[in-house]
Amino acid sequence: MPVDPTTPMPEVPAGTRTAAAAVRGLLRLPPRAKRALAGPAVHRDGNELDLDAHLLLRITKALPKQAPEPVRLRRQARRMAAIGAGRRAPVRVEDITVAGAAGPLRARLYDPGATDTLLVYFHGGGWVIGDLDTHDALCRTVAHTARIRMVAVDYRLAPEHPYPAAVDDAVAAFRDIVARAGEFGVAAERVAVGGDSAGGHLAAVLCQRTRGGPAPLLQLLIYPPTDLTGKAESRTTFAEGFALTSTDIDFFDRCFLPPDLDRTRPDVSPLYAETTAGLPRAVVITAGFDPLRDEGEAYAARLRADGVPVTARRFDGYMHGFVNNALAFGPAVGEIAAMLADALAATPGSPADSDPDGARRQIATS
Question: What is the mean pLDDT of the chain?
Fold first, then answer.
């Protein structure tokens, strides 16, 4: 299917264009002016907070604080995502439906043109917020840069649908998309999964659940929560002041997890799996100023120790949620998409993998 740059964009909340222009103007200021606005450099755990991240954090902290409430937070998430979306990449987009565990789910197909692989993507948002529109710009960029079709899945959210609804939806949607792979122009064995934050958790759990097949080709995990017991040291180090706080995490956990649930179950905390051997190749992304940093990196280390090929990358100066702000962090999103493309090229059965001249780009499995 050809690329169609005229594909309609998601509805933009009122005032978004003005706010985006203001943010864009601030980000274009010279470093000295940004530093004056942001304040003294912030250092924590051997890292310095990126200047643009620091500036955006100061802006966010100046906004009025309200008690967390799912409907309001969802509305706010859509607005913030629209402000940070930047220029959306030109890919063909189509709203579709896929099977969920309890009925059809909204989904969105992103098609950059000729490609042999599809990525099933689960958005972040603490299993409580986020939707197809909050992650539309990100999906367009990844599909366009990595030259991969994507299907973003709008799984059921808590607290209306607590655990395991989102997990069950993710598994059901993946299996439905694999069964319909020909409809999407790819082979069933060329379907990968990915997600950011809560969506990364869903992708990781899905890979463990589908060991008996059909299994994903690859897993893209962007700052995934993998230990929901909350024991990771970074959850204390970055508990306050850096985009995602301990208060936020506690609220999302209360909405998503039943109070009597054993959080050490691998179906809840994938880091506690008896083994991760045989799971799909992984690309694991973390942020230096993120309370979820350590458990994401621990999961990457666990996969690697069990023989799973892993490409890991920490963006030292960034905070949780950076992939949703292309205005400030667009180059990083492009880098993640390129890493995904390299990892896919190294999977068995890819055109590059079978190239007798060795045309496949090499990836670093750190």
Answer: 92
Task: Cite the active site residues.
Answer: 197, 290, 320
Pairing of strands 118-122, 43-44: unpaired
Rounded CA separation 336/73 (Å): 27
What are the Cα distances from residue 63, in Å, to 58, 130, 202, 340, 365?
Answer: 9, 20, 31, 35, 41
Q: Using CB atoms within 10 Å of the CB of residue 288, give its burial: 0 to 12 exposed, 13 to 18 middle, 19+ buried.
A: buried
Q: CB-based contacts of 16: which residues, under 8 Å, 6+ apart? A: 79, 82, 83
Query: Identity (one letter) of the amino acid at 366?
Result: S
d(CA 98, CA 179): 11
Q: Is the pTM of this model over 0.90?
A: yes
- How far apart CA 161 and CA 256 sit, in angstroms, is 8
Backbone phi, psi, residue 308, to 5°: -85, 130
Are 108 and 151 in contact, with CB atoms under 8 Å apart?
Answer: yes
